[in-house]
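Dear colleagues,

As part of the handover before I leave the project, I'm documenting each prediction I ran so the next person doesn't have to rerun anything. This entry is a single chain, and its sequence is reproduced below.
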Amino acid sequence: MSFLAGLRLPVFAAPMFLVSGPELVIAAARAGIIGAFPNNNVRTSQDYGEWLRRISDALGPHGASGALPWAANLITHSTNTRLPGDLEQVRRFRPPIVITSLGSPRPVMETVHGYGGLVFADVIDLRLARKAAEAGVDGLVCVCAGAGGHTGRLSPFAFVSAVRACFDGYIVAGGGIADGWGIAGALAAGADFVYMGTRFLATEESIAAEAHKRMVADCGIGDLLVSDAITGTPASWLVPSLVQCGLDPANLPSPRERVYDSGRSKETRRWKDVWSAGQGLGAVRDIAPVAQVVDGLEDEFRAARTRFLALGRA
């Protein structure tokens, strides 16, 4: 798609629970990357449609000359009873890219392809990658070890290589990538784009709690714990946030269920006050505007590219 070729950097500001909203998506797109947000950051399908409308109005309708690319994220797990209503809002406001999570992309394919949009599916292993490819997706998001939130277990180098051997669509690599050097490394390994969440969590446009942003800026890679105790799916959590919620990181409870219903009240979700981050949090040193973060990423990416080219001439 030509609108992807015009990006300043091949980066998705990854959709993050209770972090990504319209302001972050719009700022990311205006800075030259792709912003995204998840549907479970709002309570109802009507609210979801309002966010889609705000973003579309700010960035231009899909297919219009000069419109900027952005992405909506939909949870397609079978427990998400709100999916039909959210998908109707997607049909109305036509986000250029729809990223599916925690379930098959099949429920969204007809709607999104019907208006000329692209479908990307996030996957954590080769089995799921093959199933998504068979469903006809345009891109695969390889969620690898080091990712924040619901994380993967595979090395991005091994995973991207394996997916590239059996899939000829777009490949996005995510997991611990937080600077321009990581962007260059992922592209050299065969990815077309990178997923970058934690780097954009501590931005002024993020809707994350200020204390969450500050914790990300203050913590390092040793402050993370991967556990399925909170949501039923392995995820990367900030240890200080577990402690402040009265949980013992060394003795977390067993998960009772896996429910990803976007219509459930945030107040009843066990993970609302437990904060997540990925292994790239060491690159986050302060809370900054999205545009400033992207400026720094571009400088680092150019430096990495220069170094790589120099090595090839040695």
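Residues 145 and 153 are 4 Å apart (CA to CA). The chain has twelve helices and eleven strands.

All the best with the project,
I.
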